[in-house]
């Protein structure tokens, strides 16, 4: 437990940022899983779910939660899966 005032503030800030980042990553993963599940099941709204997943990946990448290469790789794999 920090004693210095600035260290106490950093702990609070870090916890808040960690919660926000975890939430954003979770949303991204959920969107990708929904797309995968819909594609496997042969649902009608696969295009919409694909767009939502790509949007979630782009948001995570722009916030620095995932690297640009991972974002591109994930989107490419999903696009290839959509085309099948």
What labels would you give this structure?
elongated, structural constituent of ribosome, Small ribosomal subunit protein bS20, rRNA-binding, ribosomal protein, ribonucleoprotein, 3 helices, mainly alpha, Methane Monooxygenase Hydroxylase, Chain G, domain 1
CATH topology: Methane Monooxygenase Hydroxylase, Chain G, domain 1
Distance between the termini: 53 Å
The helix fraction, in percent, is over 70%
Order of helices and strands: HHH
CATH architecture call = Up-down Bundle
Helix-and-strand structural type? mainly alpha
Q: What is the domain tally?
A: 1
What percentage of the residues does DSSP assign to strands (E)?
under 5%
Radius of gyration: 17 Å
Overall 3D form? elongated
Count every beta strand, where a strand is a DSSP E run of 2 or more residues. 0
Q: Could you list the spans in which at least 5 consecutive residues all have pLDDT below 50? A: none
Largest sheet: number of strands, sense, barrel closure:
none
Mean pLDDT: 96
Task: Supply the number of helical segments.
Answer: 3
Q: Could you state the CATH homologous superfamily? A: Ribosomal protein S20
Query: CATH class, anyone?
Result: Mainly Alpha
Function: Binds directly to 16S ribosomal RNA.
Pfam family, one: Ribosomal_S20p
Protein name: Small ribosomal subunit protein bS20
Family: Belongs to the bacterial ribosomal protein bS20 family.
